[in-house]
Amino acid sequence: MTFFEKYANVLISRVNLQQGQNLLIRTEPVHWKLASIIAAEAYKREARYVRIDSNEVENTLLYKARIENSKEEYLDYVPKIRTDVQKTMIEENWALIALKGADDPDFLADLDPGRNTKASKAVAEAGKPFRKAVQNNEIAWLVAFAPTDILAGKILNREPGPEAVEELWKVLTPILQLDKDDPAEVWKQKGGILKERAQKLNAMKLKNVHFKGPGTDLTLGVTEKSLWHGGPDTTTGGIEFSPNIPTEEVFTAPDFRRTEGRVKVTRPVLVPAIGKMITGAWLEFKEGRVVKYGAESGLDVLDQYFEIDEAARYLGELALVDSNSPIFQSGKIFYNILFDENASCHIALGSAYPGCYEGGGAMSEEELKNNGINVSNLHTDFMIGAPDVDVTGETWSGEKVDIIKDGKFVL
Q1: 3-175 CATH fold
Q2: Which of 65, 200, 208, 346 has its CA 20 to 30 A from that of 384?
């Protein structure tokens, strides 16, 4: 088995592809060779059909061509064929693997903000039913990472190219557990550890979670029915799957109405809905809403993000990660949400996962909002953790408890 076949085996195993099931691999065209290896592994596992596709923003060359050259009046058009594919996936219980790794993280940096916002807002609205189905775990889904020449050069601070990719894979191999005899089994065991950590947090019955560190003094409210998750999840049909490889987080849905204070974002953020980077950002909340914000670069990206959806000014996720994470220990910034969010505690501006609220999967959007669970067309993680950021909790009974001290879990 080659190295990439081993990686493909891990992804197919952890999305838990079933015999006779269909699979969609969604990725940028630059990753189609790896996607084809994953497809081959899927067919070996008796998949019925595999489709490789990229959506509007992931196919950056195509997206850039449209934003720069299309007539203004056509920018918010979304063809029915796009939503038809998504509807078919839900109806036929497909599995989904999303390969993340921008060919060039800065490729869309110079797009006209107004035109970009118009197109991305339409795409986000059209994808709402599918996104809701994924968040409700109606299908098995998994997000993974693959490097590119330019991205590898940026991560390693060296000349981009195949040599940079080869060097980066050496960094990724232990993070992805690909140096182990049975990495899929290692991820299964790690998932059990994260699930146990989530159970401890659920037992604590937290009312508030407080982050304190340089540039950060932030309190997030947690509802009495918020549920912490970590490790593998289960579809509504009873199939266990791992949403992320790698994964180091435990997470919940905070009460979006009860976020107060200021927070420093500790890592760069690539905003998928817009395709641009933000660095050195900070956010200030009052009664749950972002009321002030700034950034060293990419301030216009935040402007566009909030213009797409007002609900994206509120939080939908709170995730805890300690500095024992091998991603953090690597000392690298990956310019990729999947890796960077699993190196650091983070919050998400935008939608919550309904499964993080007791009975949330069966609730309407209005019911979720009435119970403090945010509903939005967007969801982007902002990393706020660091070794000098402590996390404490307050229970509904008034007890104060240390959760993360000096970057590490102390539960």
Answers
A1: Thermophilic metalloprotease-like (3.40.1830)
A2: 200
| Residues 211/384, Cβ–Cβ less than 8 Å | yes
Is cis: bond before 160, omega within 30 of 0?
no
113-126 and 60-69 helices cross at what angle (nearest 10)? 120
For the chain, the domains span: 3-175, 183-409
- Exposure class string for 295-309: b at 16+ Cβ within 10 A, else e: beebebbbebbbebb
pLDDT surpasses 60 at 379: yes
Cβ atoms 210, 218 nearer than 8 A = yes
HEC-encoded secondary structure of the chain: CCHHHHHHHHHHHHHCCCCCCEEEEECCHHHHHHHHHHHHHHHHCCCCEEEEECCCCCCHHHHHHHHHHCCHHHCCCCCHHHHHHHHHHHHCCCEEEEEECCCCCCCCCCCCHHHHHHHHHHHHHHCHHHHHHHHCCCCCEEEEECCCHHHHHHHHCCCCCHHHHHHHHHHHHHHCCCCCCCHHHHHHHHHHHHHHHHHHHHHHCEEEEEEEECCEEEEEECCCCECCEECCEECCCCCEECCECCCCCEEECCCCCCEEEEEECCCCEEECCCCEEEECCEEEEECCEEEEEECCECHHHHHHHHHHCHHHHCEEEEEECCCCCHHHHCCCCCCCHHHHHCCCCEEEEECCCHHHECCHHHCCHHHHHHCCCCCCCCEEEEECCCCCCEEEEEECCCCEEEEEECCEECC
pLDDT classification of 234: cutoffs 50, 70, 90: very high
Contact indicator for 164, 158 with CB cutoff of 8 Å: yes
Per residue in 130-189, pLDDT (tens digit) is 988 998 999 999 999 999 999 999 999 999 999 999 999 999 999 999 999 999 999 999
Distances (CA, A) of 50 to 17, 38, 43, 344: 11, 9, 8, 34
pLDDT recorded at residue 132: 87
Give residue 345's pLDDT band: very low, low, confident or very high (50, 70, 90): very high
Residue 138's closest CA among 90, 97, 85, 96? 90
Contact 57, 119 (CB under 8 A): no
- Backbone dihedral region for residue 101 (phi beyond 0: left; psi -120 to 50: alpha; all else: beta): left
